[in-house]
Amino acid sequence: MNFFEFWNQYKWRIISVLFAIVFAAFLFTIGFWKTLLLFVLVGIAFFIGTLLDDRYEILQVIGEGGMAIVYKALDHRLNRNVAVKIMREDMLADEEFRSRFCAEAHAVAMLSHPNIVAVYDVSHSDAMEYIVMELVEGITLRQYMDRRGALAPGRWA
Hints:
By secondary structure, the chain is an alpha+beta fold. 45% of the residues lie in helices and 25% in strands. A six-stranded antiparallel β-sheet has the order 1-2-3-4-6-5, covered by helices on one side. β5 and β6 form a beta hairpin.
């Protein structure tokens, strides 16, 4: 096994160990809460510049939720912008969350409607789970509601 094969097979384990060592060092020098905040911010931006499956180049963070972080990415094969939803690393160990994430991808992929984003690709591995979806430019629902107030039932049903 050459270096590149080794790196591709074990890079997430190596990065996780290094992450833990650096986290411990920061914990002892700047305290728990500052360390936690720093690593959350770094973790969110961790994938920017990364090329997933030699195809999707992560460009920027566009949203985050309890299970995943959503990034804007460039699909190099089709030369288009897409949204990539990457499961949070702390959720990967939980099989229930992984199965929910996978079920979400399959459920959305079966739907076809102008008001539902299209799912283009799904990837599963020990180190990462992600869904590649149609990128819809614009404001979030939260931003819309902050500007215009709650939606009337006729506007969302």
